[in-house]
Structure prediction request, 285 residues.
Amino acid sequence: MKPQFESVTIAENASLSTLHTLSKSFEHPFHYHPELELTLIKRGSGTRIIADQVTPFYSGDLCLIGANLPHIYRRESLPQMKHQEPYAEFIVIKFRASAIQAIASLPEFSEIARMLQRAKRGLYFQTQPNGGIATAMENCAAMQGAEQWLAWIQLMHQLARIESEEIASPGLQFQPAAKAQASVDKVCQYIFENLEEPLKLETVAAQVHMSESAFSRFFQRHMHLSFSQFLIQVRLGRACQLLMETDAGIAEACYHSGFGNLSNFNRRFKEHFKMSPREWRHQHQ
Prediction:
């Protein structure tokens, strides 16, 4: 998937760009920017790709994405969607590293400095969609001027003191996409749009006029994942959205996310989430 450069606008009299909104679907392209990005999903589910990691997301998902780290959040507007919950809610705060370097260099804020260093690979924080961090982000996004800056520093201090997991694989070096990666972009778009279909390797390879073996090497080189790994993770993301945001049964979630076999779906789901689809739905509804 070809990551696009995104130009982030931050006002001259501000250090942050903030967004708190509702949306039926997330339609941003796979992109990167020199600003760091803190994204909280307050409500909703789907699939996120950060560097070489494809992961289902749902309410409470909170990530700090480092400078120039390619990423995308993908949420579908599904026909099975519950009428009372057609929208997802998310909060995004973007900031330049230079806006916090002076603070992070002080000994009192050494934890923030360590967090920013680790954020080069992206960080995932375990939190609650309506917990203290979510409230702090919501308040920060609603403020302006010095009041917003102070709230943001307090938020960063809170984040630096809670447990987080690095996202991208160690040693992964991101370079702006070469011309050939436009083919990967075409393939990924095809996968998202035809997820319920069998999507055999030969069919997908044909979209970019490659043999199966050539396409397998090509996809691995550009996505740092095998085609089958990528497909399973994207399908799990779709299944999670169906389980959380619709009344679809387990079998429906299986087949509408492209798993052609219920026992295979249950096995893959349990391998990833360490619980059955039914247990996962009970925990997240």
About this structure: The first strand starts at residue 4 and ends at 5.
